[in-house]
Amino acid sequence: MKCFAHISEEAVGVCGVCGKALCVNCSAYSGHSGVCPVCRLKEFEQEYARNKSSIIKTTLIAVAIAIAVIIITVISSLYYFLLGVLLSGILVLIMLPTIRRNRYLKGEIIKIRTFLYRGHAHI
Ligand SMILES: [Zn+2]
Ligand SMILES: [Zn+2]
Question: pTM of the predicted model, to two decimals?
Answer without folding.
Answer: 0.57
